[in-house]
Amino acid sequence: MTELPVAFKEYTRQLMGDERFEQYLHSFEEEAPVSIRLNPQRNLSVVDGESVPWCRDGYYLKSRPNFTMDPLFHAGCYYVQEASSMFLDEILRQLLTSYIVPHTSLDLCAAPGGKSTLLRSALPEDGVLYSNEPIRNRANILLENVTKWGYNNHFVTNNYPRDYRSSKAHFDLILCDVPCSGEGMFRKDEATIREWSQQNVEKCWQLQREIVSDAWECLNEGGVMIYSTCTFNTKENEENIRWILDTYDAEVLKIDTKPEWNITGSLLEGFNAPVYRFIPGITRGEGMFMCVIRKGGLSPNPSPKRGSLSPNPSPKREGRFKRTGLRMMTSDISLQPSAIKVELDYKSAIAYLRREALVLPADTPRGIVDVTFMGQVLGQVKNIGSRANNLYPKEWKIKTTYITDNYEAILRHT
């Protein structure tokens, strides 16, 4: 059995109580669930999967396939996402019905992009989402995932939260999926166990408050902040929510859930605001905490403040937003279908994703051509006749040399 830090076990047993903690420990003896979330734009459905009950497009798979060798994964047809994180979909569904229709939204700590792609799928089509990541290499991964997801009005930025505060930009909805001590990832990633310490917990809750302070200044009156972590302790969760309520003009919004989802509420004595904690062994997923907070004012559709980001920015590559000083990132590749397309078989699709040159059918027009697999655009080549030069981004290419003879479909056309 996985050996957990003594200090973590002592604290968490006291926090959860004996029964919940024993259920949590038992989860380490079981296979962690594998789940994916479909891209609603792709008209594909899951094969042999069970629905995630709190997410319209989420599915549990019976086993973990080799996602790297599935061209549809690289085409953005689905995102491999932990099921507890998909509770964001239920939150958004209820927010849009009862509380707010956001025009501009911000995912402040967005890499690698799971919650951001979910946000973009769930938000109104004419809304605008900015997905931000301060660490450059992580921002590049975020940009890749956002580009492959393929939605309009979705922009990636590379800034610190304080930069957003300085920019005077304002948003109707802000997701603060803050850096945390990662206790909820212990079953999934043993590295987080080695990195855990009580000192790190202390550093995390202080950093989280700094991030929330910056984000709060960017939130419109009547706007909504979604606060989340992938950890269990109350210092990074309930105690931070209580601090927000004590510090700002804020209220916690209730999200309706079903008993069979087995979501745990507040574990902080004397604090009964609605919060949502996912505990492995109790809920079917990894550890997660979420809370929904509205800023002052009760207008369900807050008016953008002066200084709000334009819904249609036109930045130069690696340029800056006009008037804001915020850095935006752009991609050289488009996965939107064009007039000239060539369908690839499985081995050719993998060769393309390895960034190898292709030979297209003799009647293929010369010039830029989209290559597809099962009708889904993978990227582009430049056809020069004798061969097609591969335009797939170098940083995205598959590096493995393993390939199977047959494609084992994870998804199928509806």
Provide an overview of this structure.
This protein is of the alpha/beta class and 414 residues long. It contains 11 helices and 19 strands. The strands form 4 sheets. Strands 6, 7, 8, 9, 10, 11, 12, 13 and 14 form a 9-stranded mixed β-sheet that branches. The longest helix has 20 residues, at 198-217. The chain is globular. The two termini are 42 Å apart. Residues 302-307 and 314-320 have low confidence and may be disordered.
Name some characteristics of this structure.
alpha/beta; nine-stranded mixed sheet; four-stranded antiparallel sheet; single chain; 414 residues
Q: The biggest beta sheet, please?
A: 9 strands, mixed
The total count of strands amounts to 19
Shape: globular
Runs in which pLDDT lies below 50 for 5 or more consecutive residues are 302-307, 314-320
The Rg value, from CA coordinates, equals 22 Å
**Fraction of helical residues:** 25-40%
Determine the oligomeric state from the structure.
single chain
Distance between the termini: 42 Å
Strand-residue fraction? 15-25%
Structural class: alpha/beta
What do the pLDDT scores average to? 90
- Encode the helix/strand succession as letters: HHEEEEHEHEHEHEHEHHEHEEEEEHEEEE
Number of helices: 11
Quick overview:
By secondary structure, the protein is an alpha/beta fold.
SSE layout and pairing:
Blueprint: H1 6-16, H2 18-26, E1 34-38, E2 44-46, E3 49-51, E4 58-61, H3 71-74, E5 78-80, H4 87-98, E6 104-107, H5 114-122, E7 128-132, H6 136-149, E8 154-157, H7 161-167, E9 171-177, H8 190-195, H9 198-217, E10 219-229, H10 238-247, E11 250-253, E12 276-278, E13 288-295, E14 328-329, E15 341-343, H11 346-353, E16 367-373, E17 376-383, E18 388-390, E19 411-413
Parallel strand pairs: 6-7, 6-9, 7-8, 9-10, 15-16
Antiparallel strand pairs: 1-4, 1-5, 2-19, 3-4, 8-14, 10-13, 11-13, 12-13, 16-17, 17-18
